[in-house]
Amino acid sequence: MTAIASLSPASSHPAPKVAVLVVAAGRGTRFGSHVPKQFHNLGAKSILQATLLACTGGLPQARIACVIHADDKAQYHADTAALGLRLLPPVIGGATRQASVLAGLQALQDDPPDIVLIHDGVRPFVSAKLLAAAVEAAQTFGAAIPGLSITDTIQKTDALQQIVETLERDHLYSVQTPQAFRYHLILEAHLAARAAGRITLTDDASVASFAGHKVTIFQGEAQNRKITMQEDLARANADLLADLPDIRTGQGFDVHAFGPGNQVWLGGVSIPHAQGLIGHSDADVLLHAITDAILGALADGDIGAHFPPSDPKWRGAASSLFLEDAMQRVAARRGRVVHIDATLICEHPKVGPHREAIRQSIAAITGLNLDRVAVKATTSERLGFTGRGEGIAAMALVTLRLPA
Ligand code: MG
Predict the structure, then answer these.
(1) What is the mean pLDDT of the chain?
(2) What is the CA(279)–ligand 1 centre distance, in A?
(3) Ligand 1 center–CA 317 separation, angstroms
(4) Percentage of residues in the chain having pLDDT higher than 70
(5) How many alpha carbons fall within 13 Å on the CB side of residue 183?
(6) What phi-psi label fits residue 299: left (phi over 0), alpha (psi between -120 and 50 degrees) or beta?
(7) Distance between CA atoms of residues 79 and 22, nearest Å
Protein backbone atom coordinates (compact mmCIF):
# COMPACT_ATOMS: atom_id res chain seq x y z
CA MET A 1 0.00 0.00 0.00
CA THR A 2 1.15 3.52 -0.63
CA ALA A 3 0.90 6.35 1.82
CA ILE A 4 -2.28 8.24 2.50
CA ALA A 5 -3.24 10.05 -0.62
CA SER A 6 -4.83 13.44 -0.54
CA LEU A 7 -7.82 13.74 -2.79
CA SER A 8 -8.86 16.83 -4.59
CA PRO A 9 -12.30 17.87 -3.35
CA ALA A 10 -13.63 18.67 -6.81
CA SER A 11 -13.93 15.61 -9.01
CA SER A 12 -12.56 15.80 -12.52
CA HIS A 13 -14.29 12.51 -13.43
CA PRO A 14 -17.74 12.13 -14.94
CA ALA A 15 -20.23 10.70 -12.46
CA PRO A 16 -19.57 6.96 -12.30
CA LYS A 17 -22.12 4.22 -11.79
CA VAL A 18 -21.68 3.28 -8.16
CA ALA A 19 -22.85 0.23 -6.26
CA VAL A 20 -22.43 -0.43 -2.55
CA LEU A 21 -22.24 -3.91 -1.09
CA VAL A 22 -23.11 -3.88 2.59
CA VAL A 23 -21.69 -7.09 4.03
CA ALA A 24 -23.88 -8.31 6.86
CA ALA A 25 -23.69 -12.09 6.70
CA GLY A 26 -21.56 -12.55 9.82
CA ARG A 27 -22.65 -14.57 12.82
CA GLY A 28 -20.89 -12.24 15.26
CA THR A 29 -19.24 -14.91 17.36
CA ARG A 30 -17.05 -12.32 19.10
CA PHE A 31 -20.17 -10.36 20.00
CA GLY A 32 -21.42 -13.11 22.28
CA SER A 33 -25.12 -13.19 21.41
CA HIS A 34 -27.33 -15.61 19.53
CA VAL A 35 -28.71 -12.63 17.61
CA PRO A 36 -26.12 -11.47 15.03
CA LYS A 37 -24.74 -8.10 16.06
CA GLN A 38 -25.98 -6.31 12.93
CA PHE A 39 -29.55 -6.81 14.19
CA HIS A 40 -28.94 -5.41 17.69
CA ASN A 41 -30.34 -2.02 18.48
CA LEU A 42 -28.41 1.18 18.06
CA GLY A 43 -30.82 3.78 19.36
CA ALA A 44 -34.24 2.99 17.96
CA LYS A 45 -32.80 1.21 14.89
CA SER A 46 -30.83 -1.94 14.30
CA ILE A 47 -27.13 -1.48 13.54
CA LEU A 48 -27.79 -2.68 10.00
CA GLN A 49 -30.68 -0.25 9.55
CA ALA A 50 -28.41 2.59 10.69
CA THR A 51 -25.68 1.48 8.29
CA LEU A 52 -28.10 1.26 5.36
CA LEU A 53 -29.54 4.69 6.15
CA ALA A 54 -26.03 6.13 6.23
CA CYS A 55 -25.23 4.58 2.83
CA THR A 56 -28.46 5.55 1.11
CA GLY A 57 -28.31 9.05 2.59
CA GLY A 58 -24.65 9.53 1.64
CA LEU A 59 -24.88 8.11 -1.88
CA PRO A 60 -28.48 8.59 -3.01
CA GLN A 61 -27.64 7.72 -6.63
CA ALA A 62 -25.88 4.45 -5.80
CA ARG A 63 -27.42 1.01 -6.03
CA ILE A 64 -27.11 -0.73 -2.70
CA ALA A 65 -27.28 -4.44 -1.97
CA CYS A 66 -26.89 -6.24 1.31
CA VAL A 67 -25.11 -9.58 1.60
CA ILE A 68 -26.86 -11.55 4.33
CA HIS A 69 -26.86 -14.99 5.91
CA ALA A 70 -29.65 -17.30 4.75
CA ASP A 71 -30.89 -17.57 8.35
CA ASP A 72 -31.41 -13.80 8.56
CA LYS A 73 -33.80 -13.36 5.62
CA ALA A 74 -36.87 -12.68 7.75
CA GLN A 75 -35.06 -10.22 10.00
CA TYR A 76 -33.50 -8.48 7.01
CA HIS A 77 -36.85 -8.06 5.27
CA ALA A 78 -38.46 -6.75 8.45
CA ASP A 79 -35.65 -4.25 8.99
CA THR A 80 -35.54 -2.95 5.43
CA ALA A 81 -39.32 -2.85 4.93
CA ALA A 82 -39.57 -0.65 8.01
CA LEU A 83 -37.20 1.86 6.40
CA GLY A 84 -38.92 1.97 3.01
CA LEU A 85 -35.51 2.08 1.29
CA ARG A 86 -35.00 1.16 -2.35
CA LEU A 87 -32.35 -1.53 -2.26
CA LEU A 88 -31.29 -4.25 -4.66
CA PRO A 89 -32.48 -7.73 -3.63
CA PRO A 90 -30.34 -9.18 -0.84
CA VAL A 91 -27.59 -11.62 -1.75
CA ILE A 92 -27.06 -14.76 0.33
CA GLY A 93 -23.46 -14.87 1.48
CA GLY A 94 -20.99 -17.72 1.75
CA ALA A 95 -19.04 -19.45 4.49
CA THR A 96 -16.43 -16.69 4.80
CA ARG A 97 -16.45 -12.95 4.43
CA GLN A 98 -14.47 -13.36 1.23
CA ALA A 99 -17.05 -15.77 -0.22
CA SER A 100 -19.86 -13.41 0.79
CA VAL A 101 -18.27 -10.46 -0.97
CA LEU A 102 -17.70 -12.52 -4.11
CA ALA A 103 -21.36 -13.55 -4.11
CA GLY A 104 -22.30 -9.89 -3.81
CA LEU A 105 -19.97 -8.86 -6.63
CA GLN A 106 -21.32 -11.60 -8.88
CA ALA A 107 -24.88 -10.46 -8.20
CA LEU A 108 -23.95 -7.12 -9.79
CA GLN A 109 -22.65 -8.72 -13.00
CA ASP A 110 -25.79 -8.28 -15.10
CA ASP A 111 -25.66 -4.51 -14.78
CA PRO A 112 -22.09 -3.89 -13.64
CA PRO A 113 -21.23 -0.63 -11.88
CA ASP A 114 -18.05 1.32 -12.61
CA ILE A 115 -17.19 1.54 -8.94
CA VAL A 116 -18.12 -0.73 -6.09
CA LEU A 117 -17.79 0.13 -2.41
CA ILE A 118 -17.65 -2.80 -0.02
CA HIS A 119 -18.78 -1.76 3.44
CA ASP A 120 -19.18 -3.53 6.77
CA GLY A 121 -22.80 -3.80 7.90
CA VAL A 122 -21.62 -2.97 11.41
CA ARG A 123 -20.05 0.40 10.59
CA PRO A 124 -23.13 2.61 10.95
CA PHE A 125 -21.25 5.90 11.47
CA VAL A 126 -19.82 6.16 7.96
CA SER A 127 -20.26 9.75 6.78
CA ALA A 128 -21.46 11.04 3.41
CA LYS A 129 -18.06 12.70 3.09
CA LEU A 130 -16.19 9.42 3.52
CA LEU A 131 -18.47 7.62 1.06
CA ALA A 132 -17.84 10.33 -1.53
CA ALA A 133 -14.09 10.19 -0.84
CA ALA A 134 -14.16 6.42 -1.37
CA VAL A 135 -15.82 6.79 -4.78
CA GLU A 136 -13.29 9.43 -5.77
CA ALA A 137 -10.36 7.32 -4.55
CA ALA A 138 -11.54 4.26 -6.49
CA GLN A 139 -11.82 6.33 -9.66
CA THR A 140 -8.36 7.77 -9.16
CA PHE A 141 -6.46 4.71 -7.95
CA GLY A 142 -8.55 1.70 -8.95
CA ALA A 143 -8.26 0.18 -5.48
CA ALA A 144 -8.36 2.27 -2.32
CA ILE A 145 -9.29 1.86 1.32
CA PRO A 146 -9.75 4.29 4.21
CA GLY A 147 -7.20 4.09 6.99
CA LEU A 148 -6.17 5.87 10.15
CA SER A 149 -2.56 6.30 11.09
CA ILE A 150 -1.68 4.52 14.29
CA THR A 151 -0.67 6.67 17.24
CA ASP A 152 -0.05 3.91 19.79
CA THR A 153 3.30 2.17 19.80
CA ILE A 154 2.90 -1.26 18.27
CA GLN A 155 4.86 -4.20 19.64
CA LYS A 156 5.24 -7.57 18.03
CA THR A 157 5.48 -10.53 20.40
CA ASP A 158 6.39 -14.18 20.26
CA ALA A 159 4.22 -17.07 21.42
CA LEU A 160 5.16 -16.31 25.05
CA GLN A 161 3.78 -12.77 24.72
CA GLN A 162 7.30 -11.39 24.92
CA ILE A 163 8.27 -8.49 22.71
CA VAL A 164 10.44 -9.38 19.79
CA GLU A 165 10.21 -6.17 17.81
CA THR A 166 8.95 -2.59 18.05
CA LEU A 167 7.25 -1.87 14.76
CA GLU A 168 7.84 1.36 12.90
CA ARG A 169 4.41 2.91 13.12
CA ASP A 170 4.98 5.55 10.45
CA HIS A 171 3.93 2.98 7.88
CA LEU A 172 1.16 1.29 9.83
CA TYR A 173 -2.52 2.05 9.43
CA SER A 174 -5.65 0.62 10.92
CA VAL A 175 -7.97 0.17 7.99
CA GLN A 176 -11.71 0.63 7.68
CA THR A 177 -14.45 0.28 5.12
CA PRO A 178 -15.87 1.27 2.65
CA GLN A 179 -13.11 -0.33 0.62
CA ALA A 180 -13.45 1.05 -2.88
CA PHE A 181 -12.58 -0.46 -6.22
CA ARG A 182 -13.16 -0.39 -9.92
CA TYR A 183 -15.73 -3.11 -10.22
CA HIS A 184 -14.02 -5.41 -12.71
CA LEU A 185 -10.68 -5.11 -10.89
CA ILE A 186 -12.05 -6.42 -7.60
CA LEU A 187 -14.37 -8.99 -9.19
CA GLU A 188 -11.45 -10.52 -11.12
CA ALA A 189 -9.19 -10.35 -8.06
CA HIS A 190 -11.79 -12.28 -6.04
CA LEU A 191 -12.16 -14.89 -8.77
CA ALA A 192 -8.36 -15.26 -8.98
CA ALA A 193 -8.04 -15.63 -5.21
CA ARG A 194 -10.72 -18.29 -5.13
CA ALA A 195 -9.17 -20.15 -8.06
CA ALA A 196 -5.83 -20.12 -6.21
CA GLY A 197 -7.45 -21.52 -3.07
CA ARG A 198 -6.86 -18.32 -1.08
CA ILE A 199 -10.25 -18.25 0.60
CA THR A 200 -9.68 -16.73 4.03
CA LEU A 201 -8.36 -13.27 3.20
CA THR A 202 -9.87 -10.91 5.77
CA ASP A 203 -10.52 -7.85 3.67
CA ASP A 204 -10.87 -6.84 0.05
CA ALA A 205 -7.64 -4.88 0.02
CA SER A 206 -5.87 -8.17 0.75
CA VAL A 207 -7.72 -9.76 -2.16
CA ALA A 208 -6.72 -6.94 -4.50
CA SER A 209 -3.11 -7.12 -3.27
CA PHE A 210 -3.09 -10.87 -3.77
CA ALA A 211 -4.09 -10.29 -7.39
CA GLY A 212 -1.19 -7.92 -7.86
CA HIS A 213 -2.94 -4.57 -7.55
CA LYS A 214 -1.59 -1.58 -5.67
CA VAL A 215 -4.04 -0.50 -3.00
CA THR A 216 -3.92 3.12 -1.87
CA ILE A 217 -4.94 4.28 1.59
CA PHE A 218 -7.00 7.45 1.87
CA GLN A 219 -7.94 9.25 5.05
CA GLY A 220 -10.50 7.38 7.15
CA GLU A 221 -12.59 8.81 9.97
CA ALA A 222 -12.25 8.12 13.68
CA GLN A 223 -16.04 8.12 14.04
CA ASN A 224 -16.34 5.32 11.46
CA ARG A 225 -16.01 2.66 14.13
CA LYS A 226 -16.82 -0.99 13.68
CA ILE A 227 -19.16 -2.48 16.24
CA THR A 228 -17.49 -5.77 17.07
CA MET A 229 -17.96 -6.28 20.79
CA GLN A 230 -20.81 -5.64 23.22
CA GLU A 231 -18.73 -2.77 24.66
CA ASP A 232 -18.62 -1.11 21.23
CA LEU A 233 -22.41 -1.16 21.05
CA ALA A 234 -22.78 0.15 24.60
CA ARG A 235 -20.41 3.01 23.81
CA ALA A 236 -22.14 3.78 20.51
CA ASN A 237 -25.51 3.89 22.26
CA ALA A 238 -24.09 6.15 24.96
CA ASP A 239 -22.70 8.47 22.28
CA LEU A 240 -26.11 8.61 20.61
CA LEU A 241 -27.81 9.50 23.88
CA ALA A 242 -25.22 12.18 24.61
CA ASP A 243 -26.40 13.86 21.40
CA LEU A 244 -29.96 14.02 22.83
CA PRO A 245 -29.54 16.07 26.01
CA ASP A 246 -33.07 17.57 26.13
CA ILE A 247 -34.81 15.00 28.37
CA ARG A 248 -38.57 15.41 28.58
CA THR A 249 -41.44 13.68 30.35
CA GLY A 250 -45.00 13.68 29.02
CA GLN A 251 -48.15 12.37 30.65
CA GLY A 252 -51.35 11.14 29.08
CA PHE A 253 -54.73 10.16 30.49
CA ASP A 254 -57.76 8.66 28.79
CA VAL A 255 -61.11 7.08 29.61
CA HIS A 256 -63.51 5.05 27.49
CA ALA A 257 -66.90 3.76 28.60
CA PHE A 258 -68.10 0.20 28.19
CA GLY A 259 -70.80 -0.48 25.63
CA PRO A 260 -72.04 -3.32 23.47
CA GLY A 261 -69.40 -5.65 22.11
CA ASN A 262 -67.41 -8.78 22.79
CA GLN A 263 -63.80 -7.51 22.94
CA VAL A 264 -61.74 -4.57 24.11
CA TRP A 265 -58.53 -3.28 22.49
CA LEU A 266 -55.80 -2.58 25.02
CA GLY A 267 -52.31 -1.63 23.81
CA GLY A 268 -53.05 -2.95 20.35
CA VAL A 269 -54.17 -6.35 21.69
CA SER A 270 -57.72 -7.63 21.29
CA ILE A 271 -58.99 -9.08 24.57
CA PRO A 272 -62.25 -11.04 24.61
CA HIS A 273 -64.75 -9.46 27.04
CA ALA A 274 -68.48 -9.37 27.69
CA GLN A 275 -68.52 -5.72 26.60
CA GLY A 276 -66.64 -3.46 24.21
CA LEU A 277 -65.36 0.08 24.68
CA ILE A 278 -67.21 2.95 23.04
CA GLY A 279 -65.14 5.29 20.89
CA HIS A 280 -64.76 6.78 17.48
CA SER A 281 -61.66 4.70 16.70
CA ASP A 282 -61.09 1.23 18.14
CA ALA A 283 -61.25 2.93 21.58
CA ASP A 284 -57.85 1.61 22.65
CA VAL A 285 -57.68 3.63 25.83
CA LEU A 286 -54.12 2.57 26.59
CA LEU A 287 -52.65 3.54 23.20
CA HIS A 288 -54.53 6.83 23.41
CA ALA A 289 -52.95 7.64 26.78
CA ILE A 290 -49.46 6.73 25.50
CA THR A 291 -49.97 8.77 22.33
CA ASP A 292 -51.02 11.79 24.39
CA ALA A 293 -48.00 11.35 26.67
CA ILE A 294 -45.67 11.51 23.66
CA LEU A 295 -47.45 14.55 22.26
CA GLY A 296 -47.20 16.09 25.72
CA ALA A 297 -43.46 15.56 25.88
CA LEU A 298 -43.17 17.19 22.45
CA ALA A 299 -45.54 20.01 23.53
CA ASP A 300 -47.34 19.27 20.27
CA GLY A 301 -51.06 19.34 20.97
CA ASP A 302 -53.06 16.24 21.82
CA ILE A 303 -54.56 13.24 20.11
CA GLY A 304 -57.90 15.00 19.58
CA ALA A 305 -56.19 17.89 17.79
CA HIS A 306 -54.32 15.62 15.40
CA PHE A 307 -57.08 13.04 14.90
CA PRO A 308 -60.37 14.87 15.46
CA PRO A 309 -63.31 12.57 16.34
CA SER A 310 -65.32 14.71 13.89
CA ASP A 311 -63.24 13.34 11.00
CA PRO A 312 -64.95 10.23 9.58
CA LYS A 313 -61.52 9.07 8.40
CA TRP A 314 -60.74 7.80 11.91
CA ARG A 315 -63.96 5.83 12.42
CA GLY A 316 -62.97 2.39 13.67
CA ALA A 317 -59.28 3.19 13.05
CA ALA A 318 -56.62 1.04 14.69
CA SER A 319 -55.16 3.25 17.39
CA SER A 320 -51.68 2.00 16.51
CA LEU A 321 -51.94 4.57 13.68
CA PHE A 322 -52.12 7.36 16.25
CA LEU A 323 -49.15 6.04 18.19
CA GLU A 324 -47.13 5.56 15.00
CA ASP A 325 -47.91 9.14 14.03
CA ALA A 326 -46.68 10.38 17.41
CA MET A 327 -43.49 8.32 17.02
CA GLN A 328 -42.95 9.89 13.60
CA ARG A 329 -43.26 13.32 15.19
CA VAL A 330 -40.47 12.32 17.58
CA ALA A 331 -38.36 11.05 14.68
CA ALA A 332 -38.98 14.24 12.71
CA ARG A 333 -37.43 16.16 15.61
CA ARG A 334 -34.54 13.67 15.56
CA GLY A 335 -35.53 12.52 19.04
CA ARG A 336 -36.00 9.18 20.66
CA VAL A 337 -38.55 7.73 23.07
CA VAL A 338 -36.57 6.00 25.80
CA HIS A 339 -39.27 4.74 28.18
CA ILE A 340 -43.01 4.19 28.42
CA ASP A 341 -44.74 3.51 31.73
CA ALA A 342 -48.50 2.96 31.58
CA THR A 343 -51.23 1.99 34.03
CA LEU A 344 -54.66 0.58 33.26
CA ILE A 345 -57.41 1.18 35.83
CA CYS A 346 -60.36 -1.19 35.66
CA GLU A 347 -62.15 -4.01 37.49
CA HIS A 348 -62.53 -6.10 34.32
CA PRO A 349 -61.14 -7.53 32.13
CA LYS A 350 -58.26 -8.87 34.20
CA VAL A 351 -55.14 -7.43 32.60
CA GLY A 352 -52.54 -9.74 34.13
CA PRO A 353 -52.91 -12.65 31.69
CA HIS A 354 -52.52 -10.21 28.76
CA ARG A 355 -49.83 -7.96 30.19
CA GLU A 356 -46.88 -9.47 28.30
CA ALA A 357 -48.76 -9.51 25.00
CA ILE A 358 -49.65 -5.85 25.53
CA ARG A 359 -46.06 -4.91 26.35
CA GLN A 360 -44.82 -6.73 23.27
CA SER A 361 -47.43 -5.03 21.12
CA ILE A 362 -46.45 -1.56 22.34
CA ALA A 363 -42.75 -2.41 21.88
CA ALA A 364 -43.48 -3.54 18.33
CA ILE A 365 -45.46 -0.40 17.44
CA THR A 366 -42.87 1.96 18.91
CA GLY A 367 -39.69 0.05 18.11
CA LEU A 368 -38.63 0.21 21.76
CA ASN A 369 -36.88 -2.63 23.49
CA LEU A 370 -39.22 -4.61 25.72
CA ASP A 371 -37.29 -3.57 28.82
CA ARG A 372 -38.34 0.02 28.11
CA VAL A 373 -42.07 -0.65 28.09
CA ALA A 374 -43.92 -1.05 31.40
CA VAL A 375 -47.61 -1.93 31.64
CA LYS A 376 -49.24 -2.03 35.05
CA ALA A 377 -52.85 -2.55 36.12
CA THR A 378 -54.90 -1.71 39.15
CA THR A 379 -58.51 -1.64 40.21
CA SER A 380 -59.97 1.36 41.99
CA GLU A 381 -61.28 -0.81 44.83
CA ARG A 382 -64.82 -0.71 43.41
CA LEU A 383 -64.88 3.07 43.86
CA GLY A 384 -65.87 5.55 41.18
CA PHE A 385 -66.78 4.83 37.55
CA THR A 386 -64.00 2.31 37.04
CA GLY A 387 -64.97 0.62 40.31
CA ARG A 388 -68.56 0.33 39.15
CA GLY A 389 -67.33 -1.26 35.93
CA GLU A 390 -68.60 1.56 33.70
CA GLY A 391 -65.38 1.93 31.76
CA ILE A 392 -61.59 1.75 31.67
CA ALA A 393 -59.11 4.52 32.45
CA ALA A 394 -55.46 4.59 31.40
CA MET A 395 -52.52 6.74 32.43
CA ALA A 396 -49.14 6.90 30.74
CA LEU A 397 -45.80 8.56 31.33
CA VAL A 398 -43.34 8.78 28.46
CA THR A 399 -39.70 9.84 28.71
CA LEU A 400 -38.12 11.00 25.50
CA ARG A 401 -34.96 12.77 24.48
CA LEU A 402 -34.46 15.47 21.88
CA PRO A 403 -31.39 17.15 20.43
CA ALA A 404 -30.31 20.36 22.15
MG1 MG B 1 -59.48 7.98 23.72
Answers:
(1) 92
(2) 7
(3) 12
(4) 97
(5) 19
(6) left
(7) 14
- Name the residue type at position 268: G
Ligand 1 centroid – CA 401 distance (Å):
25
Which pTM was predicted?
0.71
Q: For 291-307, how does the pLDDT look when each residue is reduced to its tens digit (9 = 90+)?
A: 999 999 999 999 999 99
Predicted local confidence at residue 187, as pLDDT: 98
**Alpha carbons 379 and 254: distance in angstroms, whole number:** 15
Whole-number pLDDT of residue 30? 72
Q: Which of 152-156, 283-287, 371-375, 390-394 has the lowest mean pLDDT?
A: 152-156
The residues spanned by each domain of the chain are: 2-241, 245-402
User: Which architecture characterizes domain 2-241 according to CATH?
Assistant: Alpha-Beta Complex (3.90)
Distance 286 CA to ligand 1 centre (A): 8
Q: Per-residue pLDDT averaged across 35-52, rounded?
A: 89
* Cα 313 to ligand 1 centroid, rounded to whole Å: 15
Amino acid identity of residue 11, one-letter, is S
The pLDDT score that the predictor gives to residue 9 is 52
The H or E element that residue 237 is part of is: helix 230-242
Residues 273 and 300 sit within 8 Å (Cβ to Cβ): no
**pLDDT recorded at residue 339:** 97
Please name the helix (run of DSSP H) or strand (run of DSSP E) that holds residue 79, with its range, or none: helix 73-83
- Fold of the domain spanning 245-402: 60s Ribosomal Protein L30; Chain: A; (3.30.1330)
Burial 200-224 (b: 16+ CB within 10 A, else e): ebebbbbbbbebebebbbbbbbeeb
Query: In terms of Cα–Cα distance, which of 166, 136, 130 is closest to 148?
Result: 130
Check: CB of residue 28 under 8 Å from CB of residue 117: no
Q: Is the dihedral of CA 383, 385, 389, 392 positive or negative?
A: negative
Per-residue pLDDT tens over the stretch 310-347: 888 888 889 999 999 999 999 899 899 999 999 999 99
Q: List residues, by chain if needed, whose CB lies under 5 Å from ion ligand 1.
A: 254, 288
